[in-house]
Each structure stands twice: as C-alpha cells, then as structure tokens.
Amino acid sequence: MRLLLISSSVVHGYGFLDHPEGAIREVLAGRKRVSFVPFAMADHEGYTEIVRQRLGAMGFDVAKAPESLDAWPASAAIDANPLTQYSSGYFENDTPDRPVFLQGGWSTPRTISKITLSARMVNGSPLAFPAVYDVYVAKPDNSGWDLVAGSLTGQPDRSGHVLIPITPRTTHGVLVIPLKLNTDGTDYYFQLAEMSAEL
Question: Is this prediction's pTM over 0.70?
C-alpha cells in the first residue's frame, strides 16, 4: 500500500488536482484502484464523487476508504441503541497513523448545547475510548466544521458517558476526532457505543 497526501487540491490558476497531477501519476504508477479518505469536507460522499471524476479522467478507479469494521459500522453509534457499537480498524499504537473520526448528523439543523459520548463498556470498564479527542460541529450552512472542544481528555463516568457542554450552536451534525487512542484491552482502536447531542 502507498499513501499519497495532497495538502491543497486547488491552487490559484489551476483546476482541481491539476497542479499535482504529475506527482499523482508517478506515485500511483501501475495501479488502477485508489482508496480515497474524504477528510477535508463535511460532505464525504460528494467529495468522494468529485475525486472519483477527476482521478477517473487519469484512468484510476476510486473507492471511498472504509471508516469502520464491517461488523461495527459508524451507524451503530447514532442508532440510540447502546448495545450496538462503532469501531475503527486496528492501529499499531496510540497515535492514529491515518484519518479516523466519527460523524453524525441531521438533515435539518438543530440547536444543541451538549454532546454526550457513550463508551463501549465491558464488565463496567470503558474500552477503546480515546485518551485525547477533538469535537467539532457542522457550520450552520453545512459548509465545514467548527472546533467546539479541543484536546479533551475527559473519560467516561461509571455509567460510561462523557458529557461535553458547549455554547449553544445551530448545526447539522457532530464530528469526533481522536488524537490519542486507548485499547480494547489488547489492541488500539477508536470505539463508541453512542454519540448524541441535545439542547
């Protein structure tokens, strides 16, 4: 596997991914399929489609990178059922070596003043809850993300919850990005049972 990180997809005077096209072709030489991590925009599906069209013009097939284990999908963290859970894929150590996050949202904006993260609990202990994490909310026009609580280290209480109070915001969704991971007892993951937000 080869990793290609492009810090600017648009540079003044060039079209989308025009300026790094030579480097993209060089790094991906001999490959036909690309796994894309849509981290920079709130609309991951839309951004993946933009990249799919542009890289398709270069002869590459693009698939969105999986963000969770198939048996532990991200949707399990926003289904109001604490018995279903989300898990990222495995990490070598406590520092994520690839983008990892959990995002939940609504089709119409709502005003929120607190976010609750619920840990995966086993025998009364939280597993793989991030040691340090950032929390963002979507901008009111859904054009990006605003950091509302950075470098948090709060860990779950006995019931498995972390309550994060924020200044009331009207938003389309919440994004949690772990900066330092914890283990599931053995290996490093990012896991949550639920993520919710309310006024």
Answer: no
